[in-house]
Amino acid sequence: MRISARQIELFQMAYRHRSTRKAADALNISQPAISRVVAELETEMGIQLFDRSGRRFEPTAAAHSLSAAIKSHYYGIDRIVDAATMIASGTAGVLNVVALPAVADTLVARAAANLMAQHPNLRIDVDVMGEQECLAMLRSGNADCAVICSSPRDSGFVSTLIREIRPVAALPSGDPLAQEAEVSLSQLAEKDLVMLPPDSPFRRALELELAISGIPFTVRAEARTQAALAEYVISGIGRGVIDPLTGALFSGAALTLRPLKARLVWPINLVASESTMTLPVTQLFVDALKSE
Hints:
This protein is an alpha/beta fold. Helix content is 46%, strand content 20%. It contains 13 helices and twelve strands. It has helices at residues 5-17, 20-27, 31-45, 61-72, 77-89, 101-118, 131-140, 185-188, 201-212, 226-234, 244-247, 274-277, 280-291; strands at residues 50-51, 58-59, 93-99, 122-128, 145-148, 157-165, 168-172, 193-195, 219-222, 240-242, 255-259, 266-273. Strand 1 (50-51) and strand 2 (58-59) form a beta hairpin.
């Protein structure tokens, strides 16, 4: 890979100003000159550094990573070229992820940890928030991708289905339903339930199934994460519905999991801008999520 000091200078100026026109004015050169150099750098690396959809000129995750590498290795062009090569392959740089609490501490954390263990120069930061907050972070450019339930229709954003979770009944030790091979929602709701908060898409899906079936239920308590919900169940506070991946974390505890007799499915999607979705680092993360 060939990257010149001039390309680095012009890229950094475009990155700093988020505009080829402003970068050109700052350097007292023509705007096409800036655009050409940025395009050449993207061609050399084989990835998109700026999102040009609509009137946008926003840096992608790869651009953030390259700028950070330049600042760290400003003393040597060879080091920058090495960093750029790894960023282009997806094995270096920074990926900022926002995720729902229900999947952040299991699916997302495991995938991120496994990738960083394989690639020491890769950093994946995970922030946890509700679905609407995740989408707001994406729209503002403060996150590179989101792991959420829905597949938004925002122009410029695309989603890929990671998996469809089939949740299971979570029962405390000694619960009579533990003797059943499968548990129906009506059986589950015969006693108090512990649930995720009302803003959780997973709770909304469960409540919809209960409503469609005309099953009355009582919520004993709410927990923001599935791990906390499992702890409530273990303590005998109530019964719950959780992701089997979370349930597996408590395999040695007083928690019994049983399949549900219900067509309840929790879809998990990764959402990002079109340019970010095509980056190698994003594809590596998608593959890691799907393999968990």
